[in-house]
Amino acid sequence: MMKKVFLNCGAPEELEVKRIVEIKSLSYLERLERLMAILEVSYMIKTAKKIQSKK
Predict the structure, then answer these.
(1) How far is it, in rounded angstroms, from Cα 43 to Cα 16?
(2) What's the DSSP call for residue 55?
(3) Which residues have a Cβ under 8 Å from the Cβ of 31 and sit 6 or more positions away?
(4) Where are the alpha helices (DSSP H) in the chain?
(5) Are 31 and 23 within 8 A, CB to CB?
(6) I need a labelling partner for 25 at 20 to 30 A (CA). Which of 4, 31, 49, 51 fits?
(7) Cα separation, 40 vs 46, whole angstroms
């Protein structure tokens, strides 16, 4: 059975505190993996914009 999807609703300050606690609970390797994923997505978006503008 699939889990229900839960959207983060609440005050931005509360969400920021939750995110900080979540990140602090991660190991160094998990933090690094998240950073690499963000960099990969950022690079893909950047290169996709260049490819579209060339068409």
Answers:
(1) 25
(2) -
(3) 23
(4) 12-24, 28-54
(5) yes
(6) 4
(7) 10
How is residue 41 written in tokens? 């997505």
User: In whole angstroms, what is the distance from residue 50 CA to residue 55 CA?
Assistant: 9
Residue type, 11: A
How many angstroms separate the CA atoms of 38 and 1, rounded? 30
Angstrom distance (rounded) from CA 11 to CA 45: 29
pLDDT digits (tens, 9 = 90+) for 3-51: 666 666 778 888 899 889 988 999 999 999 999 999 999 999 988 877 7
Measured distance CA(25)–CA(27) in Å, rounded: 7
